[in-house]
Amino acid sequence: MKVIIPLAGAGTRLRPLTHTKPKPMLLIAGKPGMCYILDELKKMGVSEVIFITGHLKERIEEFIRQNYSFRTRFIEQKELNGTAGAIRIAEKYINEPVLIIFVDTIFETDLSIINKLKKDEAGIIWTKHVEDYQRFGVCVLDKQGYLQKIVEKPSQPISKLANIGLYYIKDYKLMFEGIKYVFDHNITLKGEYFLTDAFDYMVQHGAKITCPEVKGWYDFGKPETLLETNKIFLDKGHTQVVKTENSVINMPVNIADGAKIKDSVIGPYVTIAKGVEITNSVIRDSIIDERTKITDSSIEASIIGSDAEITGHLKKLYVGDHSVIITEKFK
């Protein structure tokens, strides 16, 4: 089995953080978001992982090569023309069933069900039951429980099974045939070609696709959901503490080795990366990236990039890398 992971998006909803760091590398409870998925792949013995890159592609490639040993291939998506376009450029490298993972989210599921797929079943589209179905593409099932169609952002509750962006396609040849059909017939939405239209093509040509639900599905595509997912994973036990000086630590937190904390109150729900220095400050419900220095501050519900300097009493910040913010009281 091969794996395709599209990573070309610019993560515009997380700017300014994503001006200098790819969205999948933003911290969640102590490690980059995409690592929760990549660490699972290490256990599966996949033959190759193909990364579809774009924005800040060099940083992605460097990080993967330094931290993972599986066979990899990097392909740049020069034209951001939709999810079908991202998968299409990997076609010539696919000669076996493929697992496709969009890493805008983190999922919790047992991927071993791949091995239980019946001989006449063409693939799996994982789903999650949601109440706010109008926000998602939802999977409509037939009487046998197989995919009948995918409906984008329905106005009526035709289904509440949201498509989460995780797919295993055994009949990969039929999928690429469907992608070709989508492009040949210019089937687009707002100028983009969608992989879900290729899945509809597969179903129309007799493919049986199952749609099991995942146990958990966590978004980190915008600041509020990144902080919420950080809280969830800290609650799940992804915690760590270090020795501090004259400080109070309110769990759960994840503080990397090498962080220096003095005369401060940290937590709950705080992730602090290596090399961070915090002095005389209160930090709650926040993510602080590498080598940032925070002094005389009160920060809550904030995301601060690496190598930043924050001084003064503040409340809520979204600050990119290498920023300096100093506040002083008027005299």
Question: Could you explain the architecture of this structure?
Answer:
- With 331 residues, the chain is α/β, with parallel strands linked by helices.
- It has two domains: 2-223, Alpha-Beta Complex (Spore Coat Polysaccharide Biosynthesis Protein SpsA, Chain A); 239-326, 3 Solenoid (UDP N-Acetylglucosamine Acyltransferase, domain 1).
- 18% of the residues lie in helices and 30% in strands.
- It contains six helices and 27 strands.
- The protein has helices at 35-41, 57-67, 83-88, 172-184, 195-204, 223-235, and strands at residues 2-6, 27-28, 31-32, 48-53, 72-76, 98-101, 105-108, 123-129, 137-141, 147-152, 161-169, 209-210, 216-219, 248-249, 253-255, 260-262, 265-266, 270-272, 277-279, 282-284, 286-288, 293-295, 298-300, 303-304, 309-311, 318-319, 324-326.
- It has a seven-stranded mixed beta sheet with strand order 5-4-1-6-11-8-12.
- Strand 9 and strand 10 form a beta hairpin.
- Helix 4 (172-184) packs across helix 5.
- The longest helix is centred in the middle third of the chain and has 13 residues, at 172-184.
Q: Beta fraction of the residues?
A: 25-35%
Q: What is the molecular shape?
A: elongated
Radius of gyration over C-alpha positions, nearest whole angstrom: 22 Å
Q: What oligomerization state is this entry in?
A: single chain
Could you estimate the helical fraction of the residues in percent? 10-25%
Structural class: alpha/beta
Record the strand order, biggest sheet.
5-4-1-6-11-8-12
Average pLDDT number: 89
Q: Report the biggest beta sheet as strand number plus sense, adding barrel if it closes.
A: 7 strands, mixed
Total DSSP helices: 6
What's the number of domains? 2
Taking pLDDT < 50 over at least 5 consecutive residues as the criterion, the unreliable ranges are: none
The CATH H-level homologous superfamily of the largest domain: Spore Coat Polysaccharide Biosynthesis Protein SpsA, Chain A
SS elements, strand count: 27
CATH topology of the largest domain: Spore Coat Polysaccharide Biosynthesis Protein SpsA, Chain A
- The CATH architecture category of the largest domain equals Alpha-Beta Complex
CATH class category name of the largest domain: Alpha Beta
Cα-to-Cα separation, first versus last residue: 66 Å
